[in-house]
Specification:
This protein has 8 helices and 7 strands; from the N terminus they run ααββαββββααβααα. The chain is α+β, with helices and mostly antiparallel strands. The strands form 3 sheets. Strands 3-4-5 form a 3-stranded antiparallel beta sheet, covered by helices on one side. Strands 1-2 form a two-stranded antiparallel sheet. Strands 6-7 form a two-stranded antiparallel sheet. β4 and β5 form a beta hairpin. The chain starts with a helix and ends with a helix.
Length: about 220
């Protein structure tokens, strides 16, 4: 009889412990659910899937002048570059020739605030030389000029001179913005531009873009 009581007590204890741990076990699947993709990431992934994957073309024949000998005029005396600086800056003051003489600019690549136009550049998100090797080599002069001065797509961006120099003509497989928080926007902009102009991507470039989109 005593032994039977001990066995029953042990069984009761086991049942009680099972009930205590059951909610925690039941909650595990919810916490282990995969991260939901953001709208920006999902859209960028769809666009990226539509891009042709190919090997880069030769750089032979490339020259910046094949895209632009100088910035195109946009409105009045303002060039495209001056328009971008006014768009991206804060409290920008321009002279009669439309050139910025005062203002503040934020560089999303490295998170720097710059108080002089001397320390900023207008970057081509997809570098001209990189676009050349991605298919622009086969374009007309007029199309290359339109690409280099495109204000409608996210191709032109004000950044610090130092980050622009560090980037050069490199793609995302070789260079990414030092500020990781901008990776999602950078990859999305890159893909948007390439899709609009039907430029292809390399395998390594595609992999790098997908990795960056995971930060969205």
């Amino acid at each position: 009889m005593g032994r039977t009581l001990i066995i029953l007590r042990r069984a009761a204890c086991v049942a009680t412990l099972a009930l205590l741990f059951l909610p925690a076990v039941a909650a595990l699947p919810a916490s282990a659910e995969p991260r939901k993709r953001s709208t920006a990431e999902a859209s960028a992934r769809r666009m990226l899937a539509q891009l042709k994957v190919a090997r880069p073309l030769s750089i032979r024949g490339y020259s910046r002048k094949r895209f632009q000998s100088r910035w195109a005029h946009h409105k009045g005396t303002c060039s495209v570059r001056e328009t971008v600086l006014a768009r991206d800056g804060r409290r920008v003051r321009r002279n009669a020739a439309c050139h910025p003489v005062k203002g503040r600019w934020y560089s999303p690549y490295d998170g720097k605030w710059l108080k002089s136009e001397k320390y900023v550049d207008v970057d081509h998100v997809v570098p001209l030389s990189y676009a050349w090797r991605s298919g622009a080599k086969r374009w007309s002069q007029a199309k290359r000029r339109a690409f280099a001065n495109d204000l409608r797509r996210p191709e032109l961006l004000t950044v610090s001179h130092s980050s622009n120099i560090a980037k050069g003509g490199q793609g995302p497989q070789s260079w990414r913005p030092p500020r990781r928080a901008y990776w999602c926007r950078y990859a999305t902009s890159w893909i948007t531009v390439k899709r609009h102009y039907r430029l292809f991507v390399t395998r390594n470039e595609r992999t790098a873009l997908l990795n960056m989109l995971r930060t969205c």
